[in-house]
Amino acid sequence: MPQLSKKTIVAILLGLTLILSIGLIYYSPTIIKIMSSMNNFRAFIHSTGNWGPVMFILFQILQIVVAPIPGEVVQVAGGYIYGVTLGSLYTTIGLIIGSAIAFYFTRFIGRDYISKLLQKKKYKWMSLIQDEKKFSIFLFIFFVIPGLPKDLLVFVAALTSMSSLRFFTILIVGRLPWIIASAALGSTIHMQQYSIAIIISVIAVIGFILGYIYKDKMMDRFSNVKKTKGTSHSAKSKVNLSINKKESLCTKKGE
């Protein structure tokens, strides 16, 4: 089977991005209304009949690529509409397709734009990890912890030399536990099993709080920030020592 050329891949990615962007702009008021509640979203998905799973997967793709929709909302909705098994399956399919679009778009087309975006103070911490092995560990940890900004890290990963296989393995293994947990949460809410829903929610909130609190410490551990600070401090000490020596010599000469 002949492989697609880089030019063909770029054309496909540009076409998909254009279609998604136009669709999002045109249907954004409808999307906001649909996502305003679980029941509205469920009613819309069911109204599309056999196309329901396709529409749900499309929402998951939009959430990753362009839409400002929290991922956890779509994941919980998957369980609310389809139950744990199918909800997790459809969410995972959308996650893989959406992440593939974001990953390859950045790698082949949007590298300069994403690089400039990461220079902003809000996102600069994401670009501090230079070592690929450390970044892989950091990426996995971030994917596992619920509530942290995962989707932008897909774009960041595309800027590294990480292979596609390695990235998607980390993505699926890291995200799958909370995809299943989110689907279980949605399913228990729909079945009015609120005690189980509360337990899952509490665990998720604790995980998010711990992740948010220790995010900076994780950054220091996996990046070169500490080394840089240490080097600067060491250099500063050497400069001060050199100045003190010169002052001492000048004093002796004066005597």
TrEMBL record:
Membrane association type: Multi-pass membrane protein
Compartments reported by the entry: Cell membrane
Record key words, sorted: Cell membrane, Membrane, Transmembrane, Transmembrane helix
A single Gene Ontology CC term: plasma membrane
Domain VTT positions: 69-187
Lineage: superkingdom: Bacteria
Parts of the chain that traverse the membrane: 6-27, 48-69, 89-114, 135-159, 165-187, 194-214
Pfam families: VTT_dom
Family: Belongs to the TVP38/TMEM64 family.
Name under which the protein is recorded: TVP38/TMEM64 family membrane protein
Species per Swiss-Prot/TrEMBL record: Niallia circulans (Bacillus circulans)
Lineage: Bacteria, Bacillati, Bacillota, Bacilli, Bacillales
